[in-house]
Amino acid sequence: MVKQKKTTPIKTPSLAPSKKFTSDSYDLITQNKPINDISRLNSKQGTTNLLSTQIIKSGDITATISDAKEGNSFTPTEAIIFDYMLAQHTRSNNENSRTISFSVTQYMNDRNLKDRRNAKHQLDKGLQAFLRTTLSYSGMKRPNGKGKRPKDVDAFDGINILTSAHRTPDGIVTVSFSPEFNDIITKRGLVMPYAKATYQINPQKHPHAYYIVRKMQEQKRIAYGEPNADRLRISTLLNAIPSLPTYEEVKKTNRNYSGRIIEPFFRDLGDTPQVQQIFKDYAFLDPDGQPFTKDTYDTLSYEQFINSMLVVTAWVDYPEESVKRWKDNQKNHIDNAKKSKK
Fold first, then answer.
1. Helix axes 263-271, 209-222, angle to 10 degrees
2. What pTM, to 2 d.p., does this model score?
3. Running DSSP on this structure, what letter comes out for residue 186?
4. What does the pLDDT look like over 259-270, one tens digit per residue?
5. DSSP bridge partners of 54
6. Domains in the chain with CATH codes
7. What is the distance between the alpha carbons of residues 10 and 30, in angstroms, rounded to a whole number?
8. Which value, in Å, is the radius of gyration of the alpha carbons in the chain?
9. What are phi and psi of 222, to 5 degrees?
10. SS3 content of the chain, % helix, strand, coil (to 5)
11. Who has the most CB within 10 Å: 8, 46, 201, 214?
């Protein structure tokens, strides 16, 4: 067994250093618009295949995968590996280093995997997909079109995620982010608590659960302290679940919106053990803001479904104190910056 390194305090990129962060239930990863869009790359949706090249669109990100011999270049498994690499980068507490290392044993423990051969295959396939991928990002504009929001990432074109990835025979994985992508992680990111149970979701059994909990964790961090921090409209969530078919796709075929969209959504939310380890309790509110009843479920139309709301009423071990401190630090940082310009 490979000897594991001791956990070190984690520094918050782009803001004043945080105090020590220790949690048995949460890692920290960097999130921003392009990183979040990358986590939702999925070969099932928004994909164009040109000979051996695959082009996948996710939000404002366009990923071009060269030599895409396998049609499923990106699945929820690749998304979890991506998040895992981000967490290793944050754990390193050194934003100037582009290289991270971890063992296959560590990866298996964190993901609760039992089959070492399958774990190595997962990592090899995922890392190869990231090595073959170049990214373009269109950037975000203010709603009125007048310039960019503060902290937005500038538009970019043709950058690599990784420059190298290697696994030794004794199971040590070493990965280097490209200089450009490392800047996206460290210079324009917001630290987000990431429930470790997310790593352990089985995408083969529950293909949609990862995307649901990932999006709700993003919302919790971005809107922390606001009334909407723990809630999202279902229509917004569906846009973050590329493993589900779109309304237009179902309309062109059998129009079974319940069987292909609504039921799989509820099933993965209710039947995935790791969801219960992240959301202590949650509820659905109908378009009128009333809690779902049994009758609501039995008579739910697609229109009612997408205009309903998922509300996480309680989280399991969420690091409230740390996030509140970071939010306060961020506000002070912005206020001081405004004062210095006067």
1. 80
2. 0.89
3. H
4. 999 999 999 999
5. 49, 65
6. 10-196 (1.10.10.10), 201-316 (no CATH)
7. 11
8. 20
9. -65, -40
10. 40, 20, 40
11. 201
In the predicted structure, residue 216 carries a pLDDT above the cut 70: yes
State the DSSP string of 236-303: HHHTT-TTSPPHHHHHHTT--HIIIIIHHHHHHHHH-HHHHHHEEEEEEE-TTSPBP-HHHHHH--HH
Q: How far, CA to CA in Å, does 265 sit from each of 114, 258, 334? A: 27, 10, 39
Distance from the Cα of residue 25 to its chain's centroid:
17
Mean pLDDT of 308-335: 91
Count of C-beta atoms within a 10 Å radius of residue 283? 12
Residues 6+ apart with CB under 8 A from 45: 242, 243, 245, 246
Name 3's Cβ contacts closer than 8 Å, sequence gap at least 6.
none
Burial class (CB in 10 A: 0-12, 13-18, 19+), 150: exposed
pLDDT of residue 3: 36
